[in-house]
Specification:
single chain; 235 residues; mainly beta; Porin; 10-stranded antiparallel β-sheet; 6% helix; elongated
């Protein structure tokens, strides 16, 4: 689950920085860039992956979500101008990372009281975020913005029949974030902090008991993915 308070300082910094930039006038770069009906670019990013879990109250096993694990993301940008202050963006790409669940036995078999097991799921997402970018007035060579949208991610990482927890490959997210564009002489650079909240249950079917002890999987009622992404845009 996101600890949104930890990221609130980012919004404050953007607001303070915007006020300071407005105090002086400089030569503006790429003055017609935002008038293009369609433009392209690429993005790189750091992505943190987490899971929000609802546990099965009848299970004698408890899973401990270890917290956010960091990975890497890269992709393309296709941005369609709607008007002076809004763009519709498609951001196809790949995201790589992992999630870790630690199990603690609190009863009889399969793992016994006091024993511990760990499940690690590496993910390689083919992702297609689609979002609306709402920009403020340009301040010299800077322009803050907000974004919101949806994203579909399909996990192409190898899935094993004997995984302790079976997860769905299909992930649907609601997304929101803030960013800041910098206009240089020959290109525009942007930094964006985005939060993604999974809205579908990732928990798959109970594994085959001949290949895996199902009690690990049955320790959960539902699992929802969550992500935070720090992206760097080059357009």
């Amino acid at each position: 689950m996101f600890r949104l308070k930890k990221y609130a300082w980012v919004i404050i910094l953007v607001a303070l920085a915007s006020n300071s930039w407005a105090q002086s006038r400089v030569v503006q770069n790429l003055t017609t860039f935002d008038q293009k009906p369609l433009h392209f670019g690429y993005r790189l990013g750091i992505v943190g992956m987490d899971i929000d879990a609802e546990f099965n109250p009848t299970s004698q096993i408890r899973g401990d979500i270890t917290g956010m694990n960091w990975g890497f993301a890269a992709g393309l940008i296709a941005s369609l101008r709607i008007n002076r202050y809004m763009n519709l963006r498609a951001l196809p790409g790949l995201a790589l990372g992992e999630r870790v669940i630690k199990f603690n036995g609190q009863g009889p078999d399969p793992i016994g009281a006091g024993s511990k097991e760990q499940f690690t799921r590496k993910s390689t997402y083919v992702e297609l975020p689609l979002n609306l970018k709402v920009k403020t007035r340009r301040i010299n060579n800077y322009r803050p913005y907000f974004m919101a949208g949806v994203a579909y991610r399909f996990d192409i990482a190898k899935k094993r029949d004997d995984d302790m927890v079976q997860l769905s490959r299909h992930n649907l997210f609601l997304e929101a974030g803030i960013g800041l564009d910098y206009y240089f002489q020959f290109f525009r650079y942007g930094t964006e902090l985005k939060f993604s909240l999974g809205i579908n249950n990732l928990l798959g079917d109970t594994p085959d008991p001949t290949k895996q002890v199902p009690d690990y999987h049955d320790a959960f009622k539902s699992l929802n993915a969550s992500m935070v992404t720090l992206s760097f845009f080059f357009e």
